[in-house]
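Annotated sample (chain length 53).
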Amino acid sequence: MDLGKPRWLSKPSAVNVQGLASIDQSALLRRLGKLTDSHLASVKSAIRDLLAL
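Output written by the structure step:
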């Protein structure tokens, strides 16, 4: 799913909902930014569609 270029990233970006994986929260070093509410809603919708929920 295309996110365009969020202001907190240096390049255009995307979310790969077909390649979801979990990681331990301790592996996260720092927060780069936050998705807009509309982008987050789109990601959630894509995940629901993928999982047929």
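Annotation: The mean pLDDT is 90.
Annotation: The chain is about 25% helix and 10% strand.
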